[in-house]
């Protein structure tokens, strides 16, 4: 079954959908409202499940060349620098860490020329027996299928799921940044790599945690996640605010913040979506954050959207009709993504709760290291264990 899909949203999930569709011989038109294709934000990591999905539509090796290994899941610390658990070479599966723009750029380059249309904000959508028509200021186009991959504030979701809840503030906020650490020295006070060479860490404090990922070209991504009484609380000097909160935490945390340009410190509030009863209505399917936006606490937001893309393409390839394929996609993706979102929400409560911090730190410290390492092996947990359906070999259709 071949066809044409309109993908609304040109972020990581939308581009992944276009690449997966191309793999099965479909055409895609990607409508992105931003005036130029790009990705906002700072850093991110992809775990083994997402990397397998990238392999399935042919960009896994290129992604590995762009990313950097991070052992943050194995190096857990306290604000005074003590380790609760420590990664040991050969025993811990690294994540692959990226600047968001690097992974987005890789996907964008792989999409056929002419498929992505920036500066196109969708204003309407209607369905009939022949397919779906999407309208925007100055134009319209029809397709067999529309994929809403336009993020947590999805216009497609608002149009087709008008009864869906708005994104929910989770009582937490985060500062993000990327520091140039290429010229840092080798003293124990200012490097991001512990003595055993396994870089990346998570420092767990009372009421917040600090994440460190090395990324390519001598840069280091960091994020501080903590509680907030209300959303949209901003500061005149965001870098000074986060630096003041973490001045007493171990190095390289203060050093990373200091090495980040003031204007490059990003402050966001953390929200997710209440579960939808379906990701499909008629010939419209939601994908990624538009369907199941989740907190970052399991590092699965972009990864789940990449999984969505592979599963949707596989269903379209395997089923005789689009309706059956979309039903299969919904049946396969909704339980997994909603369970992942619930788990991320629960993890966020535990890791930013001052009341729970002491008990959580004690539990991690007392856990035997082999047990901890088994849990963060490539197949050590249900999220990372997932394997994608197989897509056909690449076609020449573009």
Automatic annotation (TrEMBL):
Molecular function GO labels: FAD binding; monooxygenase activity
Annotated region described as Disordered, given as residue ranges: 332-352
Residues covered by the FAD-binding domain: 5-342
InterPro entries (alphabetical): FAD-bd, FAD-dep_Monooxygenase_BioMet, FAD/NAD-bd_sf
Cofactor(s) needed by this chain: FAD
This protein's UniProt keywords: FAD, Flavoprotein, Monooxygenase, Oxidoreductase
PANTHER family: GERANYLGERANYL DIPHOSPHATE REDUCTASE (PTHR13789:SF318), MONOOXYGENASE (PTHR13789)
Designated name of the protein: 2-polyprenyl-6-methoxyphenol hydroxylase-like FAD-dependent oxidoreductase
